[in-house]
Automatic annotation (TrEMBL):
This is Copper-exporting P-type ATPase. Its EC number is 7.2.2.8. InterPro entries: ATPase_P-typ_cyto_dom_N, ATPase_P-typ_P_site, ATPase_P-typ_TM_dom_sf, ATPase_P-typ_transduc_dom_A_sf, ATPase_P-type_domA, HAD-like_sf, HAD_sf, HMA_dom. It is a multi-pass membrane protein.
Length: 757
């Protein structure tokens, strides 16, 4: 499956979004294979998925009326986009000043009592000259709208440019006809509207320029991430060091990292140790200590140590480039609300043209004198004010800003839809191991219940089995074995019992290592229960031990050999420093917090008590985790599930919002809507708060845009005339339209620095 991302610099119009998407859907239906496109107006990006080449995709976009030459791959477009935007910004400013430079004096002259009429030969001559100048100014200041209209006509469609082009030329053509043949017009309608055409163009260009400036800021997050990528690195060869472009480096190359340098590619340290600042990726401010064997990521910054590291991912596969890709994809993704507005915008333009023609016809036929002038003013004003650009920008602008802000906090958002759901969360379900706890457990005590067994040989057997398990508890036991310099052997058999532990044979003896459930399964149930109750004193005193381990939040792991319980290994996994604070913050936000774990109830309760969680579901098997989430949902809760393990994946998928810890398993990350690159839990609060803030922001934008269009059109059509006696001037319509999209962009920009609560 190809995934193509194209930058379409000329995309300017909300109604084009749906058009491009439809073109791909049609192509897909007409046998070009299963392809689909997602268009984002805010970023001018088209994401194409499916079996299609970039060339074919460009052809499809071109068929809607875009210049195929100008369309380029988005991944290489970042720089081009910057240049384009700066150029466009300057051009719009120049166009605005020329448009307003002619428009403002003309308008002032009219306002100060100058006659904007053609009532004698002298006025006819003077206005003729003004008309020609106006024409030239319009060509220069409005050429992108006229070209846009022309492209749309060729593609047999209409867009926002069409409205502006029609509106301004209607005013000019009418005025010019008055100049050329005043006798065709009743005396009171020999009015000229040259100032309207140039004022409208001037104002819209000014609006665009300001909007471009604001937009530049919205894509800052990706720019910042791209900036983390260094271009060259120092490679070690047999003939000494050489500087190489990172695109030419391969997995396995050895690179040198000097103090203060930025890491070029993902790698594993071969020589040296240092502190590495990973804050740009994870949001984690404290530098992390790294030594031989540890992994380092492209884009992070080396402290004072000098390192030699081995490349583990080529330039396009680094974590950093995956993050950039994810952020870009998420920024162009859509929310359900956004889709609706795209649909509306697509029908908007033709509908507006019809409304404009009808209302001006009504004014001409039934309106008070001078009917023809009124009809023209109404036509122009409706065409200009109806432009749906604010509506089209309302959602994508906010999504872009919030996805970028999330990335800055170390949170990767999979798609815009997740933001919408995350804003409605009522319950947060936290997994214990690796989410509330650090996920780096350590063996604290080995309690031998059979005095004939020696600790070392037990550890050897248990670790030999655990080396086949990926569970964090397994790695704790292996670390312990390594510390004791134990060499592991190969068990005769091994089986993983999901959510309970492991079993296997070593040297003809059967081992069961795991929780109480596994012991019961292994046939020790009766004995254990009796012991817990304190009725059997066969293995006296150990139940107190178990309770003691558990009350400290440690996990007791039972070891049975040939169905006889021989040892209890206690394993501690420290609770994250900010866990209690994060839980409190969630509660303060009115959220219910639930702890969901496969671990035993005593340990779970102890952890819950320490961090302040009231509701605990313990000893939950992996498939039951999902079940629990579904039950919460059935009870009416909107659930965010936070987890890191393979056993969390189904629950992450079923939850309304799945949040994976970035340190967790690939499976968990794939199943989640958000990935936290930082280990801190408080980031969850920030993420949910950001989601709420962006939804509020989007609603404000949509409300504003909707009100603007739904009030603007009737006012421009003249419904207020009976009360005020004046029609909305086309110039005011132009100003309102320029303001509307500027307001949306500025409001979205507020999200960048808004305080989250
Ligand atoms: N490899 C293993 N070695 C020993 N015990 C194990 C192993 N795998 C699982 N267990 C036991 O099964 C229990 C449940 O494991 P599971 O992976 O479902 O959840 P968990 O890792 O304890 O916690 P969480 O659900 O919070 O991530 C563990 O607490 C442990 O007692
Ligand atoms: Cu517009």
């Amino acid at each position: 499956m190809a995934n193509i991302s194209l930058y379409v610099p000329k995309m300017s119009c909300a109604s084009c979004v749906a058009k491009i998407e439809t073109a791909f859907a049609n192509a897909s239906r007409n046998g070009q294979g299963d392809i689909a496109a997602r268009v984002n107006l805010a970023d001018k990006l088209v994401q194409v998925s499916g079996a299609i080449s970039a060339e074919d995709a460009i052809q499809i976009i071109a068929s809607v009326g875009y210049d195929s030459e100008a369309i380029i791959d988005a991944r290489t477009a970042a720089e081009q986009k910057g240049i384009d935007e700066r150029k466009e910004y300057r051009l719009r400013l120049i166009q605005a000043s020329i448009g307003l430079g002619l428009g403002v004096p003309l308008m002032l002259w009219g306002l100060l009592g100058g006659e904007m009429m053609v009532s004698n030969a002298q006025q006819q001559q003077a206005w003729g000259v003004v008309g020609v100048i106006t024409f030239l100014v319009m060509l220069f200041t409005g050429r992108h709208f006229y070209q846009g209209m022309w492209r749309a006509i060729k593609a047999k469609s209409a867009n926002m440019d069409t409205l502006i082009a029609l509106g301004t030329s209607a005013a000019w053509i009418y005025s010019m006809m008055v100049v050329i043949a005043p006798e065709w017009f009743p005396a009171d309608t020999r009015h000229v509207y040259f100032e309207a055409s140039v004022m409208i163009l001037g104002l819209i260009n000014l609006g665009h320029a300001l909007e471009l400036r604001a937009r530049g800021k919205t894509s800052e997050a990706v720019q910042r991430l791209l900036g983390l990528q260094v271009t060259t690195a120092i490679r070690l060869t047999d003939d000494g060091d050489e500087e190489v472009e990172i695109n030419l480096l391969q997995v396995g190359d050895r690179l040198r990292l000097r103090p203060g340098d930025r890491v070029a590619l993902d790698g594993e340290i071969l020589i040296g140790q240092t502190l590495i600042n990973e804050s740009m990726l994870t949001g984690e401010p404290i530098p992390v200590h790294k030594a031989v064997g540890d992994n380092i990521s492209a884009g992070t910054v080396n402290g004072n140590g000098a390192l030699i590291y081995r490349v583990t991912a080529s330039a396009k596969d680094t974590k950093l480039s995956k993050i950039i890709e994810l952020v870009q994809q998420a920024q162009t993704s859509k929310m359900p609300i956004g889709r609706l507005t795209d649909k509306i915008s697509a029908y908007f333009v033709p509908v507006v043209i019809i409304i404009a023609l009808l209302s001006s016809l009504i004014w001409y036929l039934f309106g008070p004198a001078p009917a023809l002038s009124h009809a023209l003013v109404v036509l122009t004003s409706v065409l200009i004010i109806a432009c749906p650009c604010a509506l089209g920008l309302a959602t994508p602008m906010s999504i872009m800003v919030s996805v970028g802000r999330a990335a800055q906090m170390g949170v990767l958002v999979r798609n815009g839809e997740a933001l919408q759901t995350a804003s409605k969360i009522t319950t947060v379900v936290l997994d214990k191991t690796g989410t509330v706890t650090q996920g780096s457990p350590e063996v604290t005590e080995i309690l031998l219940l059979d005095k004939n067994i020696c600790e070392l040989s037990l550890l050897e057997d248990v670790a030999s089995l655990e080396q086949h398990s990926e569970h964090p508890l397994a790695s704790a036991i292996m670390t312990k074995a390594k510390q004791q310099s134990i060499t592991l052997k190969e068990p005769d058999s091994f089986a993983n019992v999901q959510g309970k532990g492991i079993t296997g044979f070593i040297a003809g003896r059967h081992y069961a290592v795991g929780n109480m459930g596994l012991m019961q399964q292994a046939g020790l149930g009766g004995k254990l229960d009796a012991d817990i109750d304190g009725n059997v004193d066969g293995i006296s005193g150990y139940q107190q031990q178990v309770a003691e381990f558990a009350s400290k939040g440690q996990t007791p792991v039972f070891v049975a050999v040939d169905k006889v319980l021989v040892a209890i290994i206690s394993i501690a996994d420290p609770i994250k420093a900010d866990a209690a604070e994060a839980v409190q913050a969630m509660k303060n936000q009115g959220l219910k917090v639930v702890l969901l774990t496969g671990d035993n109830p005593l340990t779970a309760q102890a952890v819950a008590d320490k961090v302040g969680i009231d509701s605990v579901f313990a000893q939950v098997l992996p498939e039951q985790k999902q079940q629990k989430v579904l039950e919460l949902q059935q009870a009416g809760e909107v659930v965010a599930m936070v987890g890191d393990g393979i056993n969390d994946a189904p629950a992450l998928m079923s939850a309304d919002v799945g949040i994976a810890m970035g340190s967790g398993t690939e499976v968990a990350i794939e199943s989640a809507d958000f990935t936290l690159l930082s280990a801190r839990l408080i980031v969850i609060n920030d993420t949910l708060a950001l989601a709420r803030a962006s939804m509020t922001n989007i609603k404000q934008n949509l409300f504003g845009a909707f009100i603007y269009n739904s009030l603007g059109i009737p006012i421009a059509a003249g419904v207020l005339f009976p009360f005020t006696g004046i029609l909305l001037s086309p110039v005011i319509a132009g100003a309102a339209m320029a303001l509307s999209s500027l307001t949306v962009v500025s409001n979205a920009n507020r999200l960048r620095s808004q305080r989250l609560k």
